[in-house]
Design a protein that fits this description.
This is Immunity protein 50. By secondary structure, the protein is mostly beta strands. The chain is built from one helix and eight strands, in the order αββββββββ. 5% of the residues lie in helices and 54% in strands. Strand 5 and strand 6 form a beta hairpin.
Length: 126
């Protein structure tokens, strides 16, 4: 996934090794013109190198927003929020990545050339 991430320096500092996206909680899908945004939680996964401002707030989990730039071939089947699912990144051609979200939340698939971070927020998961 990291090879498709643009402006990835901040993300790489937080997560030197990619977190496991096999048990995420799907929160939201937003479509804006040529971009799609997926918001999801990584329960009980916190950055290895959090910014100083995050260190004292007892956070133990992370919310991420990925922006899929110039997406195509969007397919959605029964998509519901706040359910566990898996987020997979598959190279289908040179410079084209297929993103698949599947599990209790339903199924979502799209292709894109670039992924950017739309937001990273810490939170406390009880």
């Amino acid at each position: 996934m990291i090879e498709y991430l643009v402006h990835s320096n901040f993300y790489r500092k937080l997560f030197p090794s990619d977190p496991n996206f096999k048990k995420i909680i799907f929160i939201e899908l937003t479509i804006k013109s040529n971009d799609a945004y997926i918001t999801f939680d990584l329960p009980n996964i916190f950055p290895e190198n959090p910014p100083r401002a995050w260190r004292g707030n007892k956070s133990n989990s992370t919310r991420l927003v990925f922006s899929f730039l110039s997406y195509s071939n969007l397919m959605i089947k029964k998509l519901s929020t706040e359910n566990f699912c898996s987020l997979d990144f598959l190279e289908i051609e040179k410079n084209i990545c297929n993103i698949q979200l599947s599990g209790e939340a339903g199924i979502l698939s799209l292709d894109c050339q670039f992924i950017s971070i739309g937001g990273i927020m810490p939170y406390f998961n009880e």
